[in-house]
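Subject: two folds for Thursday's group meeting

Dear M.,

Sorry for the delay on this. The cluster queue was jammed most of the week, so I only got both jobs back this morning. I'm pasting them in the order they finished. Each block is the input sequence followed by the predicted structure tokens. Could you check whether the formatting survives your parser before we put anything on slides? The first protein is the one we discussed after the seminar.
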Amino acid sequence: MRWADMAGPDLAPETSLGLLAISLALLDAVLWPRRPGRAPAFLTLGGLLVALSLSLQAWDPVSLGRHGLLYADPVAAFADLLILGGAVLAALLAAGSPAPAGVRAAAGVLTALGVLGAMVAVSARDLVVLFVGLELSSASLIAGNALGPAPASRAALRQAGPMAAATGLTLLGIACLWAGAGTSQWEQLTRGIDAGSAAMTVTGGALLLTGLAVRAGVVPFHYWVGEINAACAPSAVMLTVTVSVVPALVVGGRLVEILAEVRPDLPSLLLAASVVTVTAGNLLALWRQRLTALLGYGVVIQAGYGLAALAAGPGPSPGLWLQLTAAVLALGGGLAVSGSIGRGGTAVGLARREPLAGGALCVCLIALAGLPPTAAFSARAALFAGLAETPSAGFALLLANALLSAWVFLRFAAHVAWGREQTEETSAPDAGSLSAAVLSAGLLLLLGLWPAPVARTAEVAGAAAGFR
């Protein structure tokens, strides 16, 4: 890889994030102990916005291509937009939260490294590079959570167990895939698979998929997601969705397209896992009264619908992109509001006390329900349109779960909008959280009323998926 390649618009976002992490680390060392209060948080936000603008510039089919060990294709570009967008929402939430100056500086470095690792993982052309990206993102995430107060530190320790298991599964899976196909290059895996190596390839793919399922919080590996949601700040939960769940599903889409050639029944297995995940998430969220608990199980539910999009593939299909876009925006807006009402807050009657925050929360809950006029309705419609081509019992169960999801989130939204006001103490959302909530709700409505741009972009990314 030449510097000219790295300096080009295709890989400029990754380069800028790497430089941001180095700059923040140097500033943290030079300015100690007289660090500026919120400067690291705003510097992190500014760097993420620069990377986001560069990623938007790189969305050019003429210039997209391959650079050494990384892809710069529409799949990687769309995934980068989602990851950077979610990271910007997380940075907005973190900018207004109380934290020591030193923690803010370290959190900025870890955020940049985590986002960089996620972007490397979704762009990797080589299985070894994929492993490096996944480990960089998970290690940064755990270290960032460990910097928080005691409950967050304990949650980080409990998160380290599943992530260590995911690391082991990923290593074993990569080793088996490499042994079966004789190569570690994504695009050459299918060429190296023959009748004698199919069993080894399937074993490696199953191990790698399981490791990705742990990172995505799929049932029965979802407990660590609940721990993070219950103990960590909303910004940490948003960053978890951004650098753990999203990359796992995108990489899973790449892998499923390869494995489907040797295991034609793989989409059916993924659909079954999706039904189990969404069903468990719906049942766990059904009677929750606290907003933080509802959003925690909402992450699990959205991961289940992402699995269903993989089953409707092949590869990272348009349904997956639409689903992930709606999930990132809806969860980001909901988490932004949850920070102002506290962990025990029910948000009942919030729209009466804080009309702007309550209205934005209602829009995000309607999006989590998959209903119009939000972008999630287009995502859910694309998902079921892809699954309807091969109707099955799993499709019927998932459709029933979609109705249950709508009831779960609409019921909570009704309490937010028309519920009787509670006597619990709530604080007005800070500027960063309110901005994140309003931005998320506005984008959900805009993309719901005018879905053509994101739908066309998703089609381009879906058509470019694969290694043929």
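Second protein, same layout:
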Amino acid sequence: MGEYERIVQPFAPIYDEHSEILILGSLPSGKSRETGFYYGHPQNRFWKVLAAVFEEKIPQSTEEKRTMLLRNRTAVWDVIESCYIIGSSDSSVKNAVAADVAGLLKKTSIRRVYVNGTLAGRLYDRFVFKLTGIEAVRLPSTSPANARYSLEELIESWRVIR
């Protein structure tokens, strides 16, 4: 299966003073770390889902993705600041240290938090909720590993962020 590797969150949160919604993943996948931006795996459906929810064209470049998020008052980050993980397997995460989500919320107008997948939800509830008092809405993962949901089902589930 591979060996554990310590990963430290390589990306800063994407937000500005107008952000009202925060979407939290668990930790960038190996592919995302390679591409240098959130949800960089070509089979991850995150950008397709958000484009459909926001009724926009699917962004291609990092700048287009960042612009779409901020135009729609949406921030993106991850629950994990650092952890040990084998490859990109969420099920292998151990010794997770939470990101300072509460600190981010204090600098913004964010009042709604959504988590992308089970692990992000579990870690948010365990580490972050007690510091923010804001319950996170769990959304089905956009990861290619989540074959249980079709793209259309994901879009329908994610419409709640509007």
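Two things I noticed about the second structure. The CA atoms of residues 4 and 86 lie 5 Å apart. The mean pLDDT is 95.

Cheers,
T.
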